[in-house]
Design a protein that fits this description.
single chain; alpha/beta; eight-stranded mixed β-sheet
């Protein structure tokens, strides 16, 4: 495959510059000022007209479900979804069947990767045998064929075992990557311990179940010298612990996911804060320029901020939440519209039930309430319709989201990973109480983050590229960058392109995303990974 990308606005060495990029046999052979690239025989030429070209995005936390659970996702569908989102490198977690806890079990996954992958796949090996937390996996035997080691999906509960596997990871030159969750401290298993769980009348998942394990692991990392990476950080306490650990010189990094920066548990509540009015394309563009007078903090959010922050920190908290509410407000508006449709369906079904089928008679207005809502007290919709908001960790409080955003700005949070965790339609339609945890994210991650964080002025485009490409590739030892002699790994984005997120359009087998129906900016036009060019329709 020979390709010349002309008139690209390419991200090279930390800045954007007008460039022509030539690719031959999967290798970048020339990076020249725009207009200087020369065509050659058999070379496809694409004039990008100033469209943005980024290094391929890197996601260090995905679930591709094979081997073992191919009805949820396959290597083929997962990597195609990745390519459609601009990702050239992905790291699938080991909660599979068989669990890759030995070279033999790992080979089952590697075989599928060789046969099906359309982007680069760097699998994890498990920390413990079968992810059961009783004995260490064959870390030494797998080290050459994995990116790192993790028991994602569960936490390693035993202190002595965590020390053992960290010692082995250190010797193997690999990171220990942790899903931090003490089962005994969780309290619940569906929603955050907060407003939403109270509204549903169930026990919630505590912050302590996450941060307590991070606290333990930081101590073990100090002791063993093992590089340590924390998955999907979601609580304020976790961010503060990691911030202090970094100051103390601990070899620690962490990630969080788009939904933890842009959403919180308030989206599930009746009377949620913010301004959820529908936004057309023109007004949406103006609303993402910053200084939007219609975006307001909820009283609950203000109270949470004020209870834990003071002085300038409180001001930062309110400003960050207000600016990033542009996505949350859309989600609230979408859910309110869905709730109104629920009412109409309920009303229509009651009318039908009370009309004798052979008479065609009428029914008085007093026979039903036109304002009845089938949702649980305090929830915006019945929980069975909210499966797309069930993930692990759960959406936390507004205050937690504020601390995550601060952590993003001050460098405590090193990278953004999607935790792409697809499930079947039948599973997710069981709702919050009956369905599994996990949502799909690869195909909309960059657009929602660009819309919610960059167009609002919270971070720069350069910072977003660092969070989604440069930083994860550096930490996990994955080649990255647009430079002569490097593998061709890049993506082309039209940042002015607008679309509405729709899970039904995903290449992934998992169609449930919390950003369903949200208007976003940033269309991925194509992704180049070696000799492969994946084009979006």
């Amino acid at each position: 495959m020979n390709l010349l990308l002309k008139n690209a606005n390419a991200y090279i060495d930390g800045r954007f510059s007008p460039s022509d990029i030539k690719i031959e046999d999967g290798i970048i052979t020339a990076v020249l000022p725009a207009g200087e690239g020369s065509e050659s025989s058999g070379c496809e030429v694409l004039d990008l007209g100033g469209k943005h070209v980024f290094p391929g995005l890197v996601d260090v936390h995905v679930h591709f479900r094979e081997p073992g659970f191919s009805y949820k996702e396959t290597i083929a569908t997962g990597t195609t979804a990745a390519a459609r989102g601009g990702y050239t490198d992905v790291c699938p977690m080991p909660n599979l069947s068989p669990v890759p806890d030995s070279p033999e079990h790992l080979e089952a996954e590697l075989k599928l990767i060789r046969e099906q992958a359309v982007v680069n796949v760097h699998p994890y090996g498990s920390l413990t045998v079968g992810e059961k937390g009783t004995e260490a996996s064959d870390i030494e035997g797998m080290k050459e064929n994995v990116c790192a080691f993790s028991d994602d999906g569960v936490g390693v509960e035993e202190d002595s075992l965590m020390e053992d596997v960290m010692t082995k990871c250190k010797a193997a030159g690999k990171l220990a990557v942790a899903h931090c969750e003490f089962k005994g401290l969780m309290g619940g298993k569906h929603l955050n311990e907060g407003l939403a769980s109270k509204a549903l009348g169930i026990a919630g998942i505590s912050n302590e179940s996450e941060w307590k394990m991070i606290e333990r692991d930081i101590s073990v990392s100090k002791k063993t010298g093992c590089g340590y990476h924390v998955c999907h950080v979601s609580t304020a306490e976790s961010v503060r612990l990691i911030r202090e650990a970094k100051k103390a010189g601990v070899n620690i990094t962490c990630e969080s996911a788009p939904h933890y920066f842009l959403l919180d548990e308030e989206v599930l509540l009746k009377g949620a804060g913010g301004n959820p009015k529908a936004i057309d394309s023109e007004s949406f563009l103006s609303s993402t320029e910053g200084n939007n007078p219609e975006i307001n903090l909820s009283e609950t959010g203000k109270a949470n901020c004020e209870s834990s922050l003071s002085g300038t920190d409180k001001d930062v908290c309110e400003a960050l939440l207000s600016e990033t509410d542009v996505i949350k407000n859309q989600v609230i508006g979408i859910l309110r519209a869905e709730a109104e449709r629920d009412i109409l369906r309920s009303s229509d079904s009651k009318i039908s039930a009370q009309i004798p089928p052979t008479t065609g008679g009428s029914i008085s207005d007093s026979s039903f309430s036109s304002t009845e809502n089938t949702s649980a007290p305090g929830l915006i919709r019945d929980e069975k319709y909210l499966g797309r908001f069930k993930m692990n960790p759960p959406l936390r409080s507004r205050n937690d989201r504020a601390e995550l955003l601060k952590g993003l700005l001050d460098g405590t949070i090193d990278m953004i990973a999607t935790d792409h965790a697809p499930h079947s339609k039948e599973e997710k339609e069981k709702g919050i109480l009956g369905g599994p945890m996990g949502v799909s994210g690869l195909e909309c991650a960059f657009p929602v983050l660009y819309t919610g964080l960059v167009k609002t002025g919270v971070i720069s485009l350069e910072k977003l590229i660092s969070l989604m490409s440069t930083a994860p590739s550096k930490r996990f030892g994955i080649e990255s960058g647009i430079k002569v002699g490097a593998s061709a790994k890049l993506c082309v984005y039209d940042l002015d392109g607008q679309f509405t997120v729709s899970g039904d359009s995903f290449a992934s087998l998992g169609h449930f995303t919390p950003f369903e129906g949200v208007k976003v900016f940033g269309k991925c036009l194509l992704t180049v990974c070696g000799n492969r060019v994946i084009r979006n329709a």
